[in-house]
Amino acid sequence: MARRRAGTPSLLQLSLLQLSLLLLLRPGGTLGCASVAVGSPVVPLGSAIRATCTIQRELCQGLEQGKVRISWMLDNKTVTGSQRQGPGGTDVSDLTLPRFNRTRARLWCCVEWNGTKQRVGMAEIRAGYPPAKPLNLSCILNLSDYGLTCQWEQGAESHLPTSVALKCAGSRAQAVTGCTPRGGHSHCTVPRPLLQLYREMEIWVSVTNALGTAESEHLCIDPMDVAKLDPPALTNIQSIPSQTDCVSLAWEVARGTKHMELQCELRYRAPEDPDWTLVTGIVGQAGTAERCGFLFSTSYHFQMRCRRSSALAYWSEWSPGRNYTTHETAPSGKLDTWWGAQPAGAGGRLEVQLRWKAPRRHEANGRVLGYRVTLSPRRRVRDPPTICNTTHTQCNFSVPAGTRRVYLSAYNAAGESAATEVVLLERKGEPLAGLRAGPGGNSSLRVHWEAPPALVAAYVLEWQRVTSEPGHCSACWQMEHDGAATTALIQYGIEPFQQYNISLYPLYKDAVGMPAHTAAYSQQRAPSHAPKLHLRSISKSEAELCWEPLPVEMQNGFITNYTIFWANSIADVASATVNPSVSSFVIRGLRPSTLYKVHIMASTAAGGTNGTSLILVTTVLDDTEIQFLFLTLGLAFLLLILLLICFQKNERVKEQLWPSVPDPANSSLGKWVPAVLPQEPLLVPAAREPGPAAISTVTVLEGAPGKPPGKEPPGPAAAPPALPRPYVRQDGPGEPVQYARVGGAGYRGQRLLPEPGPRFYENLRGRG
């Protein structure tokens, strides 16, 4: 049998250990022989805890012999306690935790047996806070079932199991639990049998846990005082009388509330109004109410609500809305006017451009149908002649020279307004000083100016969007009626990133002042595009660039500067900044015959935008150098021409440079060759080492005695020259040698010799 390694437990020891564990863990075993006691299972969070573990050996199987070692664990964390002998042979361990900061934990008592820690007793501890006081208790009575629904705000979390109840007590009855909220909610409903209507009741919320009880403020109410009524119903709305701004409203209260004393409210508004107009203090069960101050020919939306006449009562929901449109009446008020006048030429008349503002809503009193301009105010008997009748807010007309007043009125279906007198004052004086404008918002402009020394009755502001298309839109304007003002806000027709020209006119008592002008943006950003560069001229060291100014629609702000960048292939980058009024720039210091990339950046106060690149190559020479080179070459060519002319004119020089050479084709030898000689091929010796050639035949040609060469008399016209033929003589075994060749054509440009007569020639043949 193999020997077991030292220190390894035997099979018998393992069996005994398993049996002991079963005995310790069986019901009634070790857990029955230990008890854990704590001062309180529920303690305030952060307080001290004291616990005691008692072990009775006679009840713990397997622990009868030997010393018992007791230890503690708080959940899975070991804590240290003290151990002592207790009465009756028990072992006792005491534990004190000075600060318990867990809301829930298990405290275990353990003993050590056979080197292992066994849990033999346990106590569960919970910690938290006393319940917090509920807040803002309120109740409302539902008239459909007469149940009283109350709600409140819970206090801070206690971390302990808590019970909540809504308590109620009558004037002569004991407190009872009216209802209990479910699912952790903070509201519940007290049923009708527990309520005393039209009598005061005391209602509160009670919250209880292991550490105490808290109650909300007690609410003493009559349940009917907190009843929420159904909304009333508007039955009729009409104007009273027909020419006033008052209306009459009739309503009915909800069913079941006719016996109650009610307090009601009315609200209304027009579609253009952002807020409601509220009418309070309407008392009564049902009936009518009157309200004045409505605008004529305006649609209104009306709603109403009611409650019991009690400070604790709840308002009903707003009734379904009802629309009503008031009646029309003639327009009222004066119109704001602005004009321009100039002589009409030779006719002795005055051309007038009259503009005005449409009446405000509270002055139009209906839908304006048109405007009428006359030369005199309207009289009772008859109407004055009309010089302009239009539906627009401007009119151009001519009046006799010297006319100083015209009259403007608006009319609708109900009548015509009183005439507004327009005095055509002349313009004179000096422009206002210090006019400036800036952003008043993304879609508005704030204008400032300095007050003039003279007394001003009003100001007129004109503004017009700047565009590259002439006549794009007419100028907008507004009148400032405060003559002491030095600032104004322009809000109509202003768009961001667009430039506007602004003019300010002071209106005096007897004249119109000369205008002051400025320009402004409500908001700026980087330009939409940069100008396109063009090359105007280039040399070996300079390049002149030009560009077109950006259209005003693309600027998006005031252009502060242009920056030109240029770089060569070596990445030498340079730049220059110029004023926005400049439209050209000369780059200096460039390298000859070098490629450059150039682009321009347009900048505003809000940023810059780069343009596309322009590629240019500098020249090798400047324009002056090129001109000098061409001039030099021209002079040299001219001198050469002159020399050629001189040579052509001078025969002596010509003979020295170009002597006359006889034409061999016209010699007697050329004429002597028979035409019937067979063509002999030209034999070319084979390639071999060069050496001396053997002459096999010598032919001697003799001329006639007494006639010098080239002096033959002229004869008949010569036949066409024969083709050149080679003459070869061969004697002996050697290769043939060509010894003569006569050309059939003469030299071009040479003088032909006279053709000789036929003669007998004798060939002398000699042997080498």
Q: What does this protein structure show overall?
A:
It is found in: Membrane. The protein is 8% helix and 39% strand. Strand 41 (533-538) and strand 42 form a beta hairpin. The chain has a 5-stranded mixed beta sheet with strand order 2-9-8-4-5, with no helix packed on it. Strands 12, 13, 15, 16 and 17 form a 5-stranded antiparallel beta sheet that branches. Strands 28, 29, 31, 32 and 33 form a 5-stranded antiparallel beta sheet that branches. It contains 6 helices and 50 strands. It is flat and about 170 Å long.
Supply the key terms:
768 residues, mainly beta, Immunoglobulin-like, 6 domains, five-stranded mixed sheet, five-stranded antiparallel sheet, 6 helices, 50 strands, flat, disordered N terminus, disordered C terminus, signal, membrane, repeat, CSF3R factor
- Return Rg in Å: 63 Å
Helix content: under 10%
Query: What would CATH call the homologous superfamily of the largest domain?
Result: Immunoglobulins
Number of helices: 6
Give a short summary of the structure.
Helix content is 8%, strand content 39%. The protein has 768 residues and is mainly beta. It is found in: Membrane.
Would you spell out the secondary-structure blueprint of this structure?
Blueprint: H1 11-25, E1 34-38, E2 42-44, E3 49-55, E4 70-74, E5 77-79, E6 82-85, E7 91-97, E8 104-113, E9 116-128, E10 135-142, E11 147-153, E12 163-169, E13 176-179, E14 187-190, E15 201-209, E16 212-215, E17 219-221, E18 227-228, E19 233-239, E20 247-252, E21 262-269, E22 277-283, E23 287-291, E24 299-308, E25 322-325, E26 337-343, E27 349-356, H2 361-364, E28 370-374, E29 386-390, E30 394-400, E31 405-412, E32 415-416, E33 420-423, E34 436-441, E35 444-448, E36 458-465, E37 476-480, E38 487-490, E39 499-507, E40 516-521, E41 533-538, E42 542-547, H3 552-555, E43 561-568, E44 573-578, E45 584-588, E46 595-604, E47 607-610, E48 614-617, H4 623-649, H5 651-657, H6 668-672, E49 725-729, E50 737-742
